[in-house]
Structure formats: structure tokens, C-alpha cells
């Protein structure tokens, strides 16, 4: 009986070793379980929206932005009109100053020592000077008009770009 008892004890000890080995194997496999749950969990990075929802969002954005754009356009046109009026006032002032300068030159009394030929020569020189002055004024005005047209076109392009970006 001692021999069968000793065989039972050996068998029990080997079973305990197998169970300990199984427990350590399970422990090592299960110890990483929380991390594996986190890694295997799916995360939605992008959410797909139906097209009607997207269109509604675009329309609401457009409805929200349109009044601001209209306000900015009116401010821009008001500012352009203000600059245009200022330019016209400056041009009128420049013409007035040129007229005063020219009239002060013509008011100087002619000297009596010149002959009638000298007076005629002085008159043609004055006409030539007036002609040059008018030609220069015309060129300045053409340049200013071209510059304003370019500025206007540039503002329109920028406005179209901003409208297209939205």
C-alpha cells in the first residue's frame, strides 16, 4: 500500500506542476489582454455623411456668409466712390491752381520797350506753352484713368477669387 500511495503522490505532484505551468502560461497570455483590447478596438477617423446632409451644410454656410460678403462689397464700393470723389476734387484743385498760375503770368504788364513783332512772338510762345500744358494735362488724365481702370479690374478679380473660394 505504501507503494501505491507513493505512486499517487508522484502523480499528484506531476499534475500540480502541469497545472502551475498552465497557470503561468495563461497568466502571461492574459496579462496583456487590456492592451490588446485597446489595440483591436476600431476607431472611426472619418465619418461619411449622406449627400443631402452635406448640401444642407453648404447651403447654411452660404446663407451665413452671403450677408457679410454683400456688406463688404458695399463698403468697398463706398470706399471706391469716396476715392473717386477725392481724386476729382484734387484734379479740380490742380486745374484751379494751374489756372491761377497761368493767369498771374498773363497779368504781368507787358513792357513798353518791345515792338509789335515781339508782342506777336510772345503771344505765339504763350499759345505754344498753353498747348504744351494742355497736352501734358491730357496725358496725366489718361494715365490716371488707366491706373484707376486697372485698380478697378484688380478689385473685381480679387472679389471674384474670394467669391469662388467660398
TrEMBL record:
It is found in: Chromosome, Centromere, Kinetochore; Cytoplasm, Cytoskeleton, Spindle; Nucleus. GO terms for biological process: attachment of spindle microtubules to kinetochore. Residues 96-133 are annotated as: Disordered. Keywords: Centromere, Chromosome, Cytoplasm, Cytoskeleton, Kinetochore, Nucleus. The keyword Acetylation does not apply. Its main location: nucleus. Residues 117-133 have a biased composition (Basic and acidic residues). Belongs to the DASH complex SPC19 family. This is DASH complex subunit SPC19. It comes from Petromyces alliaceus. The lineage of its organism: Eukaryota, Fungi, Dikarya, Ascomycota, Pezizomycotina.
Amino acid at each position: 500500500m505504501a507503494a501505491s500511495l507513493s505512486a499517487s503522490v508522484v502523480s499528484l505532484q506531476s499534475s500540480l506542476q502541469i497545472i502551475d505551468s498552465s497557470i503561468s502560461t495563461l497568466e502571461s497570455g492574459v496579462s496583456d489582454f487590456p492592451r490588446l483590447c485597446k489595440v483591436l478596438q476600431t476607431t472611426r477617423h472619418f465619418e461619411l455623411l449622406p449627400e443631402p446632409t452635406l448640401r444642407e451644410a453648404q447651403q447654411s454656410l452660404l446663407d451665413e456668409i452671403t450677408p457679410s460678403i454683400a456688406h463688404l462689397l458695399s463698403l468697398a464700393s463706398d470706399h471706391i466712390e469716396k476715392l473717386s470723389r477725392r481724386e476729382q476734387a484734387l484734379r479740380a484743385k490742380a486745374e484751379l491752381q494751374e489756372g491761377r498760375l497761368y493767369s498771374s503770368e498773363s497779368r504781368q504788364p507787358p513792357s513798353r520797350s518791345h515792338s509789335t513783332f515781339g508782342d506777336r512772338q510772345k503771344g505765339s510762345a504763350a499759345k505754344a506753352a498753353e498747348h504744351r500744358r494742355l497736352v501734358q494735362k491730357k496725358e496725366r488724365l489718361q494715365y490716371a484713368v488707366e491706373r484707376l481702370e486697372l485698380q478697378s479690374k484688380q478689385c473685381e478679380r480679387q472679389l471674384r477669387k474670394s467669391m469662388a473660394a467660398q
